[in-house]
Amino acid sequence: MAMQTILLPPRKPTTLPDDANPGPGTAITHLTHQWLNLYDRGKKIFPVIAGISSAAYGYLAWALWNREPHRACWHMTAGLVAVSIVPYTVVFMQSVNNKLNEHATRDDAAMAEGREAMKMSEQELARREREDMEVPGLLRKWSCLNLLRGAMPLAGAFLGVYATVFV
């Protein structure tokens, strides 16, 4: 949901034609910095949450194994589904994450050296413009992939509730 808000275009001035696409309402470099902040927070919090819930399901499966093995299997599956966000991120999201991270941090070395206004060649400027044009699409792709990723712990929770209430 955050990406849809971040990518909102500015309010269309009445002077723009109807078919004009004004693009995002903020600078592309700022978009990738916002994404990087969101990503850094998420990668610290959500794997831990998924790991804790997966461990809880694992404990429950272990505790039920001798008495109710069929229910234990459901809880084990719930735990595996919940923690599957980690391999999913590595397999399906890593390339998009890397591209966005490279864009967000591409000027960090120059900034650290105090070269904020360094001169760039025409080729470098053209390359940067191409990279900037890719960013909104990458953010939309990341948003879709992240939505699927976020559904995994939810699916694990549903499996856990099903195992507890209905099995």
From TrEMBL:
Oxidoreductase listed as a keyword: yes
Topological type in the membrane: Multi-pass membrane protein
Residue ranges of the region described as Disordered: 1-21
Transmembrane segments: 45-65, 72-93, 147-166
Gene Ontology MF term list: monooxygenase activity
Localization per Swiss-Prot or TrEMBL: Membrane
Record's GO cellular component terms: membrane
Source organism superkingdom: Eukaryota
Keywords attached to this entry: Membrane, Monooxygenase, Oxidoreductase, Transmembrane, Transmembrane helix
PANTHER family reported in the protein's UniProt record: ANTHRONE OXYGENASE ENCC (PTHR35042), DUF1772-DOMAIN-CONTAINING PROTEIN (PTHR35042:SF1)
Annotated family: Belongs to the anthrone oxygenase family.
Protein name: DUF1772-domain-containing protein
Naturally occurring in which organism (per UniProt): Aspergillus sclerotialis
